[in-house]
Write a structure and sequence with these properties.
The chain has 142 residues and is α+β, with helices and mostly antiparallel strands. It is built from 6 helices and 5 strands, in the order ααββααααβββ. Strands 2-1-5-4-3 form a 5-stranded antiparallel beta sheet. Helix 1 runs antiparallel to helix 2. The longest helix is centred in the first third of the chain and has 15 residues.
Length: 142
Amino acid sequence: MTIDRNHEEGLSRLIGDLETHLPPAHLKQAVLSRIEMEPARVETNREGAIISVNPAFTGLCGYEFSEIKGRKPGSFLQGKKTDPKTTAILREAVKTGKSCRVEIVNYHKDGSPYLVHIAVEPIHHNGEIIGFRAEETKLPLA
């Protein structure tokens, strides 16, 4: 798993929490709360294959990084309640190198559905798109 700037900032906040010398009984809950506050993030290469995720992403979907590295997120997150129109928007954003924001029904590793808001942004390097970063926020499932 690669570490990006957002992940480093999250780790810095965790270290700050640890440095406050919380009593051991509260330390675990403080660390877990901080992790839960981090949005789920996934990065892909230009073709849409996963190259990195953060712990919030693996916690949200239930898959370990080793299980999904190199796979396209839709290949294992989408299911029967996933709207094909929404997946078409995501595919078009990757194809054209554009940003997009959608709400989509995804599926946990255990097969249960969940609703997320996804914000996808292209990653640029030297003027070229080298991949995409998606930030996911879980929403109540209606």
